[in-house]
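Researcher: Please predict.
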Amino acid sequence: MNLLVLGPQGAGKGTQAKRIASEYGIPHVSTGDMFRAAQAEGTEFGKQVGEIMESGRLVPDELTIAMIEERLSRPDARAGFVLDGFPRNLTQAEALDAMLVGIGRGLDAILFFDVPDEVGTQRALERAQLEGRADDTPEVIARRLQIYHSETEPVAEHYRATGKLIPLHAARTIDEVWSEITDSLQVVA
């Protein structure tokens, strides 16, 4: 099963994507986790990514696209994947579509986590405290939400046209959202 999760920061995408990955035995491919891992390694790429993330900007498309293409080509992603944090704009969506066509695969569903900005902001701030994430400051969260509304929301519309977009009421509890996800995926699987 090839899945994409979309939604603003703090919508619960990562939490639910990890649960989906565990339940269906497919990898959770998170660009944020991959970027933070690169940053922790201290490589030149990691330092560059760290500076970009800490400012609230998006990592350039060409770096992100290359990283995702490499990750989806690994053997553990052959049975499927849950893609989280990509695509963030229409250019990336078009690159993902082309990449999937190139490897003979398609998306089975796009889970759209719909949550009000104030809920997502509060969750992101709580996550920052729990996980010690330096890139989740109020200023950075506000900047990311601004980018989300201008660049990522059109991606949801791009995928809505496929008929595979599944809107989720993500302001609810983790278990309530999980129940909605499992009901939706039973139809897709």
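Model: The two ends are 7 Å apart (CA to CA).
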